[in-house]
Amino acid sequence: MLSILVFISSAAWLWIQAPDQVPGHFKARGQPDDWTSKAVALAVLIPVGVGVPLLLSIRWIWEKLPMSLVNIPHKDYWLERGERGYLFACLMEFLRITAGATALLLTSSLVMTLRVGATMPEALTFVPTLVFLAIVGAALWLLYRQLTPLD
After folding, report:
1. Cβ(11)–Cβ(41) under 8 Å?
2. Global confidence as pTM
3. How far apart are the first and last CA of the chain?
4. What are the pLDDT digits (tens) for 7-29?
């Protein structure tokens, strides 16, 4: 939830501070190569930045899926032992960490959009993505570790 609040705060800041035209896309070197209105940028980014993390965070959505669609490590082991609740608790921890990282990644997009007049160093444009991948990788490692049978 904190990551979503950071995203919403950044969106409000963009609405107040940004000029009417903001970058809609950046080249790999961090230079804008397409422009759009800030209203259009926010109309696209806000539903994604709030919706995706919320969707990933709602447990009952994932519990309603057929178990054949849930592909996580050692699923059958935990289901055979009647530990469906534990299985979904671990899955939800992973999904919520991923949701928070997604909101922060999209927040970085908003911050880059605010830097209209500045060219961002190429290395800096990759930092948010690397941080996102590190967080999700650590969450995946934790999920695997929690679901690995002890016997």
Report:
1. no
2. 0.82
3. 36
4. 899 888 888 888 888 877 777 66
CB contact set of 129 (below 8 Å; sequence gap of 6+): 105
Burial letters for 11-47: b for 16+ Cβ neighbours within 10 Å, e otherwise?
beebeeebeeebbbebeeebebeeebebeebbeebbe
Alpha-carbon distance of 54 to 45, in angstroms, equals: 14
Cα separation values, 127 from 22, 39, 101, 108, Å: 21, 26, 13, 9
Backbone angles phi, psi at 39, to 5 degrees: -65, -45
Model pLDDT, residue 128: 86
What parts of the chain have a pLDDT lower than 70? 28-30, 114-125
DSSP-derived letter for residue 67 is: G
Whole-number Å distance between alpha carbons of 51 and 53:
6
Q: What does the chain come to in residues?
A: 151
